[in-house]
Structure to design on (71 residues):
């Protein structure tokens, strides 16, 4: 299922610095697969898009959990 943030997400639109070589695979897995496992989506859905760090990558769920615990 497509993530509802596809059009505006900086990761999906290659707007993040230092995009990983595995970015296309990550897009398939998270953005076009299961966005509920994406770190960016986890933070955005609970705290709002403005709380998502600019440099947070989809696989950084530990970091996302830390942000959620501190909020
Ligand atoms: S799954 Fe994550 S990285 Fe992909 S579009 Fe949604 S919020 Fe962005």
């Amino acid at each position: 299922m497509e993530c509802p943030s596809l059009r505006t997400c900086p990761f999906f639109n290659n707007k993040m610095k230092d995009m990983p070589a595995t970015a296309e695979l990550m897009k398939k897995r998270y953005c076009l697969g299961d966005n509920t496992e994406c770190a960016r989506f986890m933070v955005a859905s609970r705290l709002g898009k403005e709380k998502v760090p600019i440099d947070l990558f989809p696989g950084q769920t530990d970091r996302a959990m830390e942000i959620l615990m501190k909020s």
The pocket of iron/sulfur cluster is lined by residues 3, 5-6, 9, 11-12, 30-31, 35, 38, 40-41, 58 (CB under 6 Å). The radius of gyration is 11 Å. The chain has three helices and no strands. The CA atoms of residues 31 and 50 lie 19 Å apart.
